[in-house]
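Data deposition worksheet. Section B asks for the primary sequence of the deposited chain exactly as it was used as input, without tags or linkers unless they were present during the calculation. Section C holds the resulting structure in token form. Section D is free text for depositor observations; keep each observation to a single sentence. Incomplete worksheets are returned to the depositor.
Section A, Depositor: J.P.
Section B:
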Amino acid sequence: MSGRGVLFAIDDEVLGRLGEASTDAAVLAIVSEIEERWESACELDKAWDAIHRALTDGKLSVDHGQPPLSHVVLGGTILVSNAEAIVSVKGVDEVISVAKALRSWDASRFRAAYHRIDRSEYGDLDEEDLTYSLAWFERLGPFYEAAARAERAVVFAVDL
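Section C:
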């Protein structure tokens, strides 16, 4: 993925396997299997960074911001967080909460939140990046709604 984030809606069997995985390598092997099937996925490309910052307190950290918005991308139960990858999982209840919270977000609200990101920590905050990030953000609501209806957990994964 090389910096490209993706969300996957997963079933109980995969969720159980992730919960039983005892090493980063085991978690990443399961994520690799999920990626190969590429079912119920929501790509975020590299916009996951700006999206997470806009929905939280502007920081790129797994423990910043308040749920449920902090769980849209990075938050939830962190399975892997190292220099090479981040993997988090959100249970069904969290997915339902995220879906509900995203209903009140539109392009205007995202734009305002994007402009509150700290430029010194993020880099270029410009119209091109905003348009790019917003295009990926707009996929999240429908994805989380579908996952919530199907009572699926959601995994976020990114190779750094």
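Section D:
The chain has a mean pLDDT of 94.
The chain has one domain: 5-159.
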